[in-house]
Amino acid sequence: MQTIHDAEEPATMPHDSSQLRVQSLGSDEGSLTLNEEDLQNDLKQTKCLLDLQNKKTKKQLEQERLGHEEAIRLQEQINEEERQRIDRDAEIAKQLQEEIDIARQEQEKYDLEQALELQKELDKRKEGVAETTQAHDIDWSDPAMLRYHAQQNRSFSKAEVRNNMCMYLKNQGGYKQSHFRG
To answer: Annotated region Disordered: where (predicted)?
Structure first.
């Protein structure tokens, strides 16, 4: 049979920290021998590690809880600010709508007054035109009247058209009669 040498250091694994360690193996016996002091030291170390892990976890939980509370408080503050801004915007919109309605009513009133005033002026003009219009008929058998209307309806000669155009340009644009001499 082969013999196994006594181990100087116990074999440890991270998950074995709370379990018993094998100190030595006897070649003849094959039984475990446990050292009570080592077990108590291991137990103390394990308890200390667990306490540290629990303390970190408690601290982390406390920080997370505080972080969540802070986030909730900030969200409530933001929601409150948003509600206040929406309320202010609603008030401003209501005031603007009231001002628009008032301005529209005033404009309609002004337009109605202007329309009535213009209608009165138009009615006065129609009355004035009816009074100034001669009510007598034209006698078409009168030769003087026929000559007058014939003269009014004749077309202009080229010389008259040229003379009228020159007069217009002279009066409008600062042209002189000498500009039109050929």
So the answer is: 1-31
